[in-house]
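Dear Dr. H.,

I hope your travels went smoothly. While you were away I took the liberty of generating a structure for the chain from your last submission, since the lab meeting agenda had it listed for discussion. I wanted you to have the full record in hand beforehand rather than looking at slides cold. The sequence, exactly as received, is reproduced here:
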Amino acid sequence: MAVQWEIVESGPADAPRTVLLLPGGMCSARSYAELMAEPQLSGVRLVAATMPGHAGAPPPDDFSPEHYVEITAELAKDKAADVIVGFSMGAQVAFNMVLSGAFTGPVVLLGISLSSPDEPLFFRGMIRLGSVLGTLPAALLKKGIAPMVKKAPLPPERQAELIADFQRNSSRDMRLGLLAYVDWLRQDDDRARRFCGTGVPAWFVHAEKGDGDLTADERATLEGCPHVQVVTLPGHVFFLPVEAPGPVAELVTQALATASA
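The corresponding predicted structure, in token form, is as follows:
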């Protein structure tokens, strides 16, 4: 079955460089609106794509990480992406695309987790309960998003837009996607070291608090890679593309310069 992507684009259609933006789990392409509005990216073609099965987008036939790599690699090729930016689960897809060789351009990975300890125990436990309780844990997670969004320093109308996108999620699709995600985290095989071996330029970005983290070993391994930058933004930030568009835009600019080199 052909994948039905929900796409939001900005910037010149004939721009010399294109950036593919992959949202986080339960988020839509519209979650990149703040980043797309950054002046320093005005001359860049930005293509945001809601991940299939998230924020009401048609679900994929297969929620496995391997399938997401396959379909997203096709999208990146179709859009002639020079750089990929991913947030959370979108960053996981971009990361796996690099590991598989499906994408060799620079990547900016926002709030990415590489193994189970990178995500809160409560979150992982809630998702695993989906194996027993069906869609109930996913429905509870969806209900808990609104208070988190309301903490973000955004105008009320923008908060309402983001909450509406979260509410479009199907609890069934959330359950399948999140179970596949936590299974991937559990099957850690020294991913940081494997990524170092790819030679692909990358920026691993987290805030001091709010969006998960890397383990000390993962961070040390990545910091030792000459082609990787590990970036920690100050303060408490959960929705990195929404709450810190300026710093993220600067990193995207750096990635584009690397792609042009």
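Two observations you may find useful: The CA atoms of residues 98 and 124 lie 25 Å apart. The beta strands are 6-10, 18-22, 45-50, 83-87, 107-110, 202-209, 228-236.

With kind regards,
E. W.
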